[in-house]
Amino acid sequence: MVNQKSTEIEKIIEEFRAYLKTGQAKAHIFNLKDREPRETSEILERLRSLSTRSVEFVNLVLYGLLPNTKTKYSKRESIAPVFMNIKKFFGSRFNYNEKDWQQIAQLVFNAADKFERDPKNIKEIVSEFVANKYSKALQCGSMTPIFYSLNTSFPIINNREIRTFKTLSGTIFSERKELKQKLENYADNIEKIKEFIKTLSDDYDFKEINDMALFDLFCYWFDEKYRKSEKAKIPKKSRKEMKERGKKEDDDIFETTENEQTINIPQDKKKVIWQPKDFSIRELYSMYKDGELDPRPKFQRYFVWDNKKCSRLIESILIEVPIPNIFVAEDDKGKYFVIDGQQRLTSFINFMDGELVLKGLLVMHELNGKKYAELPDELKFRFKKSTIHTIVIEKESQKEIRFEIYERLNTGSVKLNDQEIRNCIYRGSYNELLMDLSDNKEFLELLGLKKHHNRMLDRELILRFFALYHKTYLKYKQPMKSFLNNEMEEKSNLSEAEKNDLKNKFKKSVELTRAAFGKNAFKRFIAGNERDPNGLWERRRINKALFDVIMYGFTDYDKNQIYPKIDAIREELIWLMTHNQGFIDSITISTNDKSKVLERFEKWMRALRDIIGYPVKEPRAYSFSVKKSLYDTNNKCSICEQEIRFLDDSEVDHIDFYWRGGETIPANARLVHRFCNRQRGGRDKA
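Now predict its structure.
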């Protein structure tokens, strides 16, 4: 809900209602509500009667079912066209042959057919669709016009919708939101559009927008009128902010394979313990200075109010205009950190610290150019004694409930993800360890990142690894969100010994993963089929389910057990990803369900045992008796070939490296100077 209506939005709605009376708008609505759905249904019915291998079937899907503009190739003209000549467009990019086009046509038809029969199953339909290698260029713009035509309660998502939503959301909501073009994000896009429509309908009495046909027309009209016109006056962002947004790292580095899970909380714990408190600005400022209030948690870094907006807030306080409540949470030490209201509190603090110069004031314009210290004493007193209504979430509240509150109340310009929220709530040495390991170069290389992820997605992967290492997959309890939250809460303050142990486990698994899978680590291999036997690796997106089993699988084995079998391990995982349907399902569909977690871990751990055997901790160092025997037999250094003058200056080195599978047996031993072994980089000693 908005606090105050935007006159710009009201003006836009008024202009759109006038446009609805035009012949162009009426024709557009007819096409959206009648022609497009009717023609799409007729084409789908016709396709069901054709052989999927026929040329007619392929062409009817490519140039009829998919949204085409009017050309000599098209079987119909779509109201939301994407393609002029799909074969020419895709052919130049992917070098497809006729067999490929048959596969693409079959893929599109299957998705449309399943959707018409069961539209409520949209998530699984999309998940199955995007898992197919031929889906890579068919995103929301290509497929959602089909979904809309078969069920007009589902929105079309194309560039016009995306641009309109992005432009207006910053004014309609308290934050700017975005739709995504990738089809795997369609379900999330639907929820965002529902919220967008509800706000326009409820707050601006724009009831017409509830009709998806009118929503599409609105986006078409707005994009045409405002985006391409120099008259656009919808919220303008500063060049600096736009530049920063342009630099923002793509959050979408993971395959979408997990489903949303309910949180299991005992009935008597399903409550929030909170109380209202009225603090003066003077009290809040004092609490901040004394370290009792943190208005700027580390993750709050994406959006900063400009000087003018901060000044208008200060003006509101001085003329005694009510401002929204501030929400804070109490940590285990009784200190407060801000959940919602960071921008407001920061503005107060900056003003009192003399870092804010008032500008752009409309009511108290005589104060423009002044700092706090330059205000008349009367206004200083009025400002400091002003009451800020505050809601305190007390530390006794159940942690999972607190997590959900934080997720729902935070209204920063970028919606916080789960790990960013954990970064605030679960502070301590464990959180610092995750931060430290997220800069590990070998790990970043496996993820395809040049530096740590600025939304902490790499940290969440490391947390998953440690949580499964501590609990084991056998004790995994869904939902995954709670599983990871509990891990951070229970282990929040690690000792140095515990941190070092976790570091070593992590680095060893990363090293072995890199050796076995290289650039394809944590990515799926997608098998070919009868028409095209050529398989391929997922090129970019990480599969969390594969990450879990690969990293965990290496924890119990020594390097000397893994390296001799590295090729067999790699081949076995590819075989499971292409031949074992149970394993394939467990890494692609609802992968955070307990049954899927058990399925993939049991199959992979069994495969490792078959290849390597059970984990064995073979002694790494040679005994003193072996060293003395070698010295008594021949006391020359095997590296420099000089005499070793006394026994204590000698070490026993593995001829075949231990970490490469060399055994700790006399036949694999040689005597060397301690210095020579260090110079050589030796790591094995007696």
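The two ends are 71 Å apart (CA to CA).
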